[in-house]
Amino acid sequence: MAKELRTAQELSDMIVSALGVNGVEISIRNDHAFGWQPTVNSCPGDKIFFQRRVEEIANRLRFQFDLRG
């Protein structure tokens, strides 16, 4: 089954929505090992905690979505 292609902004929006927290900014970059990798740029608390949560969400989304471009 082919994965759906999504832009970096779409993937970022999906992750922020899944977090359910306001004030979180995420960037998405290409990654040779995982296909794409999220990075927390700003958040309303402990950045390490949010980075871990974002990576957990990204691990689930990678089964369904690839980064476009």
Characterize the structure shown.
The protein is an alpha+beta fold. The protein has one domain (4-67). 39% of the residues lie in helices and 30% in strands. The chain has helices at residues 8-19, 47-61, and strands at 4-6, 25-31, 35-42, 65-67. Helix 1 (8-19) packs across helix 2. The protein starts with a strand and ends with a strand.
Let me know the largest β-sheet.
2 strands, parallel
Order of helices and strands: EHEEHE
Find the count of extended strands (DSSP E, 2+ residues): 4
Adjacency order of strands in the biggest sheet: 1-4
Binned strand content:
25-35%
What's the alpha carbon Rg, rounded to whole Å?
A: 11 Å
Average residue-wise pLDDT: 97
Short account of what is shown:
By secondary structure, this protein is of the alpha+beta class.
Task: Give the secondary structure arrangement, pairings included.
Blueprint: E1 4-6, H1 8-19, E2 25-31, E3 35-42, H2 47-61, E4 65-67
Parallel strand pairs: 1-4
Antiparallel strand pairs: 2-3
Helix pairs in contact: 1-2
Highlighted features:
alpha+beta; two-stranded parallel sheet; 69 residues; 2 helices
